[in-house]
Amino acid sequence: MPAMKFRNPAVVVLVAVALLACPAQAFAGYGHGGSTNGDPKTHTSGESDGKGNISATAGAVVYDLSKNGSGTTAGAVTPATTWTPPACYYAPKFSPDALEAYLKPIWAVDSTGYEWDAQQRDRYVNGKPYKDFNKDKADKGYWWDSYVTKGREGDPGALDCTKPIFWVDTGDAPPADVPQAVTPQILAQLAYNELRVPSTKVTLAPAGGTKVNLPTWAWLDGAEFKPVSVTASVPVLGISATTTATPYSLKIDPGTSDAVTYPASGVCEFRNGSIGEAYAKGKADETPPCGVKYLRSSGDGSYPLKATITWKIHWTGTGTAGGPLDDGTFGATQDVVVQEIQSVNR
User: What angle do CA 231, 234, 240 make, to 5 degrees?
Assistant: First the structure.
């Protein structure tokens, strides 16, 4: 099957566009999805060329991950509010021949019952409202069905997309009573779900441990914290959206109430591409722009300092300027040993 490729040294994203030339084929995910029996599923696949390049597709949606965060320590952002990307959505899935190939074996085994099978035959074959799987319109549109967003398979919301498979002519909008039908805005939300950002382990000075009442400087390497983005598209519809996360601030939680933070709020903002300031010799008596001072020893253990970055997230898409999405956060915890300052009395 021919494919369109997006390349960079890290990622290759394959766009399955062969359906336009070969309508008898189903979309990526055919045979692994479908909501005709009230049990929507999703199918995600990837490919590699053996050199570390990967592709990412999920049903009809293709993700370009070439500008996403990567590495073993990268992680998904968590919305700062209760908002979540959609658990399910509708998008093109079948050509007429592919829908026939999908449904007829189900009807043949009679596992869903005569009444349901008869209703399905009426709907897709007998003209109530579709006739012969719309084969006379094979090059004029697609059958749409539900998909479940990756990682949301066990979410109750994944069962919300229960509309039977429906037809949409090329160039037409999906039915108005299908709010989860894929649009650039929904693609932006799905791309949000794919964002990966760097670990938030901060550099501390003194390194390896600090002292009671000694200001500890904290900073992040600005070179590692740049905007990341994911583009989600549905090639057969010609729509796409790019969701971008930009680092905004770092919140430090010392891991104990016996501490003070710099600034007092514990929130250090990005300035000139970095957070905080690297400690330099001669600054021991200065107040760090970002850091912490412990007021009590950690004894034989350590304090779990947690550093959480807030990412501002916005999107742009086909035919629209887009707008903001909910902030996302990603944090990591590191152990800090705090010792008493030893003094000698004479």
Answer: 40
